[in-house]
Hints:
The chain is mostly helical. The protein is built from seven helices and no strands.
Amino acid sequence: MEQPVEQADFSERPQDEGLRFARRMYFLRVLGLVLGAVCIGGALWSQGAHALAWAALLANALVWPHIAYPLACRSANPYRAELRNLMVDSASGGAWMAVIGFSPAPSAVIFAMMAMDKVSVGGLRFLARCLAAQAVAAAVMAMALGFEPHPLSSSSLIRSRSGSRLIALRAGCAVRSRRSRRSPASTGCHGCSTAATGSRSSPASSSAAGESGIRRR
Length: 217
């Protein structure tokens, strides 16, 4: 999981560290957009989408990652440039949700994929900015294409509920991981620390029990 990026720390980070961050996000973007294209492509296929939509999907999945990476590398501040790329990713996700008519299951998957890395990279504040960009892009695209909601079947309802549970679980894990990095003393859970304490005290207790048995004999 990526190290959280604080807003006030952009100018203080070395450029080589920003380049490494951009490179890590490049590989994650390539993988994530390909998986997202498969999800969106299923919705486009079932809806009989126009060839222009397929061309835009291929460009977004196969071309945009190779444009975003050089943009970050050539910037004077790679961290800030890469965060802008991440906001573009969120905006494109919102636009695709509108293109597929906010179909519940694909939209839940797109939202989860776009949200989790934002929490791990920049925390809830950066996630809020990306969600705002996503909402604006979805609204603009819906108004441009005309909003045509797709009916929620029983199977789609089950998948959307599963997706919402996954989103909540992954978001909670990302927030707890970010807080644990801020306070190293609180990284372990209470149950694990209790188990560890018990395992450390078990040899002493067993030796004491053995000594008492010898004395009784």
